[in-house]
Amino acid sequence: MANNSKSIVDCITATLRDEILRGQYRPGERLPSERDLASRFEASRGAIREVLKKLEELGIASINPGGVRVVPIEEASLSILGPLLELHEWPDVTLVRHLLEVMGSLMSMSARTAIERASDDEISQIQRIVQRMIATDDPKENQENWKDLARLFARINDNLVLRLIFNGLKTQFPKREDDPNFELVVDQQQRIKNLKLFELSLRKRDSKGAADAISSDFLLAIDAVERTLNSHPFETGTASQETR
Amino acid sequence: MANNSKSIVDCITATLRDEILRGQYRPGERLPSERDLASRFEASRGAIREVLKKLEELGIASINPGGVRVVPIEEASLSILGPLLELHEWPDVTLVRHLLEVMGSLMSMSARTAIERASDDEISQIQRIVQRMIATDDPKENQENWKDLARLFARINDNLVLRLIFNGLKTQFPKREDDPNFELVVDQQQRIKNLKLFELSLRKRDSKGAADAISSDFLLAIDAVERTLNSHPFETGTASQETR
DNA sequence: CTGACCAAATTGGTCTGACCACTACGGTCA
DNA sequence: TGACCGTAGTGGTCAGACCAATTTGGTCAG
């Protein structure tokens, strides 16, 4: 299926992972035995075992004597978010919404603590990025700016937990933007307003105000994404399964 | 070293992972070859390969032809947080602080959106938990209450991203509490005050107020943890490495 | 001394086939 | 009907082999 150029086990991993994420095997159900998988993919059992180890580490499979079982997505690792988002041609609206909610919350917190701890020089670095954000209205460029900002916050905060979460989060975002049909309709006026508010708070070292400004901007983005995604041809997504 | 009762590869994985996390191999450096590792652990190369696949999925090793290389912790997956926290007898203070900051932020956000979407019945469920929190001052019991609250929020929000993050976050917390020396000194008065504020906001469906109350309580917890951990014999932790 | 270049050693990638301990399952027997 | 038991199947692990690619270290020309 997904015959990428990678190594065989990576390829099989991707295929099997996607099949599981698509719900092709119900949670709790047994996966085919290693030997069966080996013959199906025309690979050796060793290769299949490596695949399964990876799937287990991803949190979507549980290897135990007697059979490999599928684990419900809700108990998986953060790393499956990427594959999950790229699964369907159009990402699941509510999933994206939830992702943005979380990112907004973390960016907001990140901004708050960063501003509290930043040196004057770092503050002006932040300011420079924000000004770049205000100057452009190109979504792609802006995404880069947001990434820069996140990186800068990460460096200032030196918060490992935050970095690890972002590692699992950021991986998947960018590719969608290349899609010509995928055009975000953002309320530019409101956006600029938020950013200016952020800059003002920054100048006053009002970390709470800055955090709020960022939150607002993410709410705006959520709104835009929802409107964009909802106005498009849609596949029924098996992505968001039952919550227990 | 870590001869747990698990399977050989899980055991080796744990050993090797901890060695890497301890900084025994510098980032970018090459790990011993699969064959060398196999002879060192007296295991077959197949087993070692499975181990390495897991380490790769954890984001701390990068397998490529010519040699396996160590990846700096900052680029790892969230799943290493657990092992990282359990590495030293006394957890790294700043790491715990950062963890609490993140959890506080997420719980706060979680509370906000949950309260906005909750049914009346769910609101009263929240209230019941909060009352339990107010009633007791046993840290262990309280931690259970917080977990219940988080679970409830997760159910109400139905936010997969949030759940995945918590999956990676919660795993590691509880065990410390068993340590008799580990006694948190929380300002109970302030804690109750925060909780009452939360309950009040809840009653008024003031999601923002509730979120703030939770934030405050986490700040309190951070304060308590820092005071507790700092007052104890300390090992120099290799945990928080340089950020670039 | 420097840099390009080449060959051997090493490394990961994969396969085959084998053995063990344990589980799952179906059939037997009371 | 229900407890019991044996077999088939499963994962866990091992050994040894081959290939393609990289790494390494030495050689040789500038």
Order of strands, main sheet of chain A, comes to 1-2
> Could you tell me the mean pLDDT of chain A?
86
User: What structural category characterises the helix and strand content of chain A?
Assistant: mainly alpha
| Radius of gyration of chain A from CA coordinates | 21 Å
Taking the alpha carbons of the first and last residues of chain A, their distance comes to 30 Å
Helix-residue proportion of chain A? 55-70%
Largest sheet of chain A: 2 strands, antiparallel
Biggest interface pair, counts: A-B, 47 and 47 residues
Model regions low in confidence, pLDDT < 50 over at least 5 residues of chain A:
234-244
DSSP helical segment count of chain A: 10
What is the number of beta strands of chain A?
A: 2
Q: Which assembly state applies to the chains in this document?
A: homodimer
Please write the string of helix (H) and strand (E) elements of chain A.
HHHEEHHHHHHH
| Fraction in beta strands of chain A | under 5%
Q: Give the overall form of chain A.
A: elongated
Fold and architecture overview:
By secondary structure, chain A is mainly alpha-helical. Chain A is 62% helix and 3% strand. Chain A has ten helices and two strands; from the N terminus they run αααββααααααα. Chain A has helices at residues 8-21, 34-40, 45-58, 81-85, 93-117, 120-135, 139-157, 160-170, 188-203, 207-230; strands spanning 61-64, 67-70. A two-stranded antiparallel ribbon of chain A has the order 1-2. In chain A, a hairpin with a 2-residue loop joins strand 1 (61-64) and strand 2 (67-70). In chain A, helix 5 packs across helix 7. The longest helix of chain A is centred in the middle third of the chain and has 25 residues, at 93-117. Chain A is elongated and about 65 Å long. Chain A starts with 7 loop residues before the first helix and ends in a 14-residue tail after the last helix. In chain A, 36% of the residues are buried. Residues 234-244 of chain A have low confidence and may be disordered. At the A-B interface, helix 3, helix 5, helix 7 and helix 8 of A face helix 3, helix 5, helix 7 and helix 8 of B. The first copy, chain A, binds a DNA duplex (30 and 30 nucleotides) through residues 7-9, 33-35, 43-47, 49, 52, 63-68.
